[in-house]
Amino acid sequence: MVSIIVIPFRPGFVVARFHGFAYITRNANRPEPGLMSEIEKTVAAKPADKKPAGKEGVGGTVRVFVEALIIALVVRTLLFQPFEIPSGSLIPTLEIGDYLFVSKFTYGYSRYSFPFGIAPFSGRLLGSLPKQGDIAVFKGPKDNSTDFIKRVIGLPGDTVQVIEGRLYINDKLVERQPIEPYRTRDFFGNPIDAPQYIETLPNGVQHRVIEIEGDRGGFDNTPKYEVPPDHVFMMGDNRDNSADSRDMNSMGYVPVENLEGKAQVIFFSIDDRSSFWKVWDWPWAIRWNRLFTGIH
Fold first, then answer.
1. Which of 88, 131, 151, 287 fits 269 for a cystine, CB–CB 3.0-4.6 Å?
2. Is this prediction's pTM over 0.85?
3. List 89, 110, 113, 269, catalytic entry
4. To the nearest 10°, the Cα dihedral for 87, 93, 97, 103?
5. Of residues 233, 213, 223, 198, the one with CA closest to residue 93
6. Edge-to-edge strand order for the sheet containing 166-169?
7. Active site residue 245
8. What structural domains and CATH numbers belong to the chain?
9. From 104, 139, 150, 262, active-site residue
């Protein structure tokens, strides 16, 4: 006669005695913890319901793009804005093809500090006058939309005049010291060595100017200008090739409200015969010695 005695051994297993021998076997009614049937594995492996990966990816990309756009807009409006120099009116200080950062907070904020001239306030917020000698970006007073960049020469109440190529501020001759000629181009694009000077403004600011027509240019003899309140008088360093406040028809006095910011640093510069997008020209066309130089 065969007798089988079943003794619990551990969860999922039992000890069976058969003809005096002991065997350990699996309890079919109680599976071992951690061991799952194929059906259980299939059920466990089934993912929970969630949004399709495609929609989640598109939504995440759009969100990142919007966030980056908002950050860029805030930086551009309140802190720094990049500008490209398209003309030679500030040669030798700024060359055509220079790319620079302008600090938007230096002179405060007006509607011209914001894209499309849309501002949540009127007048000027946290405003301050520029200093004589600053290079500033501003909206042209004739259309209030075109960006210009010039040097601040006269402040409210100052008188400014040019006589035989020499600058007078408040009836005092501005000192200038001749230095080596500057290699540039004339009105027809021909290379020339233009007379170059270091000019010292009344507040001590020194900067370079050139006279491609000597002291006989079209605006080397002007009437005396008296800068009205809340306006500034702007001039280019390329004195014979700059449309500035000396020309009352094209510019004249610039309202302080039109100031957008102060030019601070050149972060990129490329020869004007090339372009920023022609990356294959960069090794030869980039003006490496001008990168990350301060503007004075």
1. 287
2. no
3. 89
4. -100
5. 198
6. 172-173, 166-169, 159-163, 225-226
7. no
8. 4-45 (no CATH), 65-269 (2.10.109.10)
9. 150
